[in-house]
Specification:
By secondary structure, the chain is an alpha+beta fold. Helices cover 21% and strands 35% of the residues.
Length: 210
């Protein structure tokens, strides 16, 4: 696995490199995204070149099948005001898997209130968690690296809020492969950038550089 990847945004044929500051854009900051917009926020195959698609991108209402995994009973209030969920998953050579999730809330206040509740739950899913630095991506951000529950497999989770949207990236790898912390940071930036692009009436194009 390469030790460094970059986020690219293609606009009118130009390639721009974005490493941080996604929260400074205007998208997603005033209203909830639609179900169709949530489908485009979570990355597709073009956004993560070289990775095989396992599922998605897809979106559903929060009352759909994904509620059980994103809104467990003990943390039910974390999804108060939530409207739609988007998700996609990828793998590479059976050594690593990426999961993307995103929830859009009715307003920024509801998303902000839910952020810490979600993060407490995700952090508890890691054994011996260590914090990861995501830079300045989004308006709220947290990330940690730890061990999963299967034969010492490594797992990293990043959570970012931009406006009304809370997003997650999970990276799972074998103990031998390990976690590329730079990749986790770049994946979080890709997802946050796509959430910033979606409300502008255009299909998000942020992607990992191949």
């Amino acid at each position: 696995m390469r030790k460094r990847r970059y986020v690219r945004i293609v606009v009118a044929g130009a390639v721009l490199v974005l490493l941080a500051g996604c929260g400074e854009g205007s998208g997603g900051k005033t209203s909830a995204l639609s179900e169709q917009q949530m489908t485009t926020v979570v990355p597709d195959a073009k956004a993560v070149p070289g990775w095989e698609v396992l599922s998605g991108p897809a979106a559903d209402t929060v009352e759909g099948d994904l509620r059980g995994s994103l809104c467990p009973q003990k943390e039910k209030h974390a999804c108060e005001g939530a409207r739609f969920v988007g998700t996609s998953r990828f793998k590479k050579e059976k050594k690593a898997e990426i999961g993307f999730w995103a929830i859009t809330y009715r307003d920024e206040k509801a998303a902000e209130d839910a952020f810490d509740v979600h993060w407490d739950w995700y952090r508890k899913s890691l054994r011996k968690p260590e914090s990861l630095d995501l830079g300045r991506v989004g308006e709220q951000r947290q990330a940690a690296l730890g061990t999963g529950n299967y034969q010492g497999a490594k797992r990293a989770v990043a959570q970012v809020r931009l406006g009304t949207v809370i997003m997650w990236v999970s990276l799972d790898a074998s103990q031998q492969t390990g976690i590329d912390a730079a990749l986790v940071k770049d994946l979080a930036a890709v997802l946050a950038t796509r959430a910033d692009e979606a409300p502008n009436g255009k299909t998000p194009v942020a992607a990992l550089d191949s």
